[in-house]
Amino acid sequence: MKDTVSEINPRKDWMGLMAKAPQGRVAALLDAEISRPAFTWLRAPELGSTMVRAGATGAAFNLGEMTITRCALTLDTGEVGHSYIQGRQKADAEAAALVDALMQTEMASRLRETVLKPLQAEMVTAKAARAAKAAATKVDFFTMTRGED
Amino acid sequence: MYVAVKGGERAIQNAHAWLAEERRGPTDIAELGITQIREQLSLAVNRVMAEGSLYDPDLAALAIKQARGDLIEAIFLIRAYRTTLPRFGASEPVDTGIMACDRRISATFKDLPGGQVLGPTFDYTHRLLDFKLAADGEAPNAPSREPETGNVPHVTEFLNREGLIEEVPHDDTPPPDLTREPLEMPADRALRLQALTRADEGFTLGLAYSTQRGYGRNHAFVGELRIGSVPVEMDIPELGFSVEIGEVILTECETVNQFTGSKTEPPQFTRGYGLVFGQTERKAISMALVDRALRWEELGEDNVGAPAQDAEFVLYHADNIQATGFLEHIKLPHYVDFQSELELVRKLRHEAGAQQVQEAAE
Amino acid sequence: MQANTLSGGFTKPAAQSAHAFRRVLEAMARPGTIQDIEGAAPPAPMSPAMGAVLLTLCDTETPVYLAGDMDCEAVRTWLAFHTGAPFVGPAHCMFAVGSWDALAPLAVYPIGTSEYPDRSATLIVERSELSVKGATLTGPGIKGQTTLSVPDVDAFQTNRKLFPLGLDFILTSGARLAALPRSTKVS
């Protein structure tokens, strides 16, 4: 799993990071840092689904759908922000699209520090806590006795 | 003769009102919240997501509440809601090889890389009722241990290296979708697996069990069972690249089946595959067994006439919403049909009676 | 990516696509009538009428063929954003868009199968103008007969012979459209 912001396509990484964020978290971090700039909707937040495909073993097949919310907006300075996020969360989609647009402005380094990095750190912590619980249930086999003798 | 009748509107409204009251129950008992259902009845939520074919834990929890805990009714509600959503696209095939595993066990290899991770399982519990749960206020704490990093390899890869298990070609071409085009026979692997992953758990379990008891036996071992979350990535046309749009929890079961070879295939292990939304291991194992049983023709095995080998029987009867829709409709008013049946039976009895009288006279 | 290639979609998708759908339905049900359709502002060379038809009828599951100068970056970007429709060649499309000359030859488009005649292409033809003068139309949805300016009488007669298979046509010009379903006889 990719948990680091890569240099190859940083936009892909921050969009993915915000898509997986807990409800309300992107908005909270964003609003704690700046007051939101004016923007125009290119596509107001809408609910829909994506067909999740499986394909790790053998040919791909359709596993079932998941709900997603998407939107697109443009800042008065022309930058376009998109978001595609899991669940039915219009406010979260708006916040993610705003951050996506602002990350294309001079605000980028500031938001990387105050929104993206904390978000990343929280998710790494949450995942590590779960992995640690799983690790505690790992079986350590030891041999009681051997049959030959 | 067709007689149109009206009526029952008030009775129906009142029935709905009573249904709502019964759902809520006595108001001196606290009402169940959606988040409580989502977090504390999560395996029910998982089943509704898997068979409702829509991954959204909040919606599944709402459906369970509205359906008063009737899971098939809840699945029905989710299926109905699903049809109202515009579909924005399809994901890239999810990669269970990078799953963050909560649980990962193998019945075939004891010491395998990544280890046997039990996860939050009912296995090894004594199935004794825990009366402490009847008292409130418990907040159990699970111990932790430093986790290993890196992806957990699939068990079947080990067998594959030795060439002991059948190869399955990888193919990312868009698969057929039975929610868009009706299921047609013969169903290919993609349609079979889509039908099975949303199939009724009980039906799938029963069929899988029948193969174990000898009705199309296929000697399955659980090569691997893993449960955990995987990222879902979708190509976004307007961006020109793909983006992770979320994460889903999946249960994957790969069976390794004994196979002595046939006219067309060499002796080797064969595979059955199960992959289901949520933590749903009974379903995933059942799916893998039924998948394997349905592959008899492709592997050149004999058709022993077992129900689990009959693709048409299995796939056309596995969907509990189709089944319950047709089954339950017969309780709705059939007054006119039945009147004609009644007339027919009376007439036949009358004729039979007349004949008997005549025979007795002769 | 520029905002202007992404603007020009329906601003009230639910209501506007319902109205646009009604206009397309009317046009198909009453061949030869000219309907006004609005709400879309696609990039050139696509007309607002063609844009509105595509916004209404296309999604990620309707492959689109862009013929001739319709196949440009601006149109591709706009359609991808607003509909998500995949772009394909003429033999695999559900919708084909372009000028009459660019769309030729018609023999390459799917005409459906005898089991599923609906698995055929709909051609959306951009016209410099659309008028109720021209070839004579008769058939379902037409009381007696009517007339419409059509690009090519022979092609529609050839298509009619394939019935119940065949192609359906929507003619667009500016903010207006007319339709020629496969059931219409053109002379």
Summarize the main sheet of chain A. Answer: 3 strands, antiparallel
Shape field of chain B: globular
Order of helices and strands of chain A: HHEEEHH
Please give the order of strands in the largest beta sheet of chain B.
Answer: 3-4-5-6
Q: What is the count of structural domains of chain B?
A: 2
Number of helices of chain B: 12
Global Rg of chain B = 26 Å
Residue runs with pLDDT of under 50 for 5 or more positions of chain A: 1-5
Structural class of chain A: alpha+beta
| Secondary-structure element string of chain B | HHHEHHEEHHHEEEHHHH
Offer a few descriptive terms.
heterotrimer; A: 149 residues; alpha+beta; three-stranded antiparallel sheet; 26% strand; B: alpha+beta; four-stranded antiparallel sheet; 12 helices; 6 strands
Description:
The complex is a heterotrimer of chains A (149), B (362) and C (187). Chain A is α+β, with helices and mostly antiparallel strands and 149 residues long. Chain A has a domain at 10-54 and 62-120. Helix content of chain A is 41%, strand content 26%. In chain A, β2 and β3 (80-86) form a beta hairpin. In chain A, α1 (10-19) runs antiparallel to α3, α2 packs across α3 (90-102) and α2 runs antiparallel to α4. Residues 1-5 of chain A have low confidence and may be disordered. By secondary structure, chain B is α+β, with helices and mostly antiparallel strands. Chain B contains twelve helices and six strands. Chain B has helices spanning 9-24, 34-40, 42-52, 57-66, 71-82, 155-161, 189-197, 201-212, 281-294, 311-317, 320-329, 335-361; strands at residues 54-55, 87-90, 100-105, 220-236, 241-257, 270-277. A four-stranded antiparallel beta sheet of chain B has the order 3-4-5-6. In chain B, β4 and β5 form a beta hairpin. Chain B is globular. The mean pLDDT of chain C is 92. Chain C is built from five helices and nine strands. Chain C has a single domain (3-186), classed as Bacterial phosphonate metabolism protein PhnH (Rossmann fold, 3-Layer(aba) Sandwich), CATH 3.40.50.11310. Classes of the chains: A alpha+beta (149), B alpha+beta (362), C alpha/beta (187). β2 (61-75) of chain A pairs parallel with β1 of chain B, so a sheet runs across the interface.
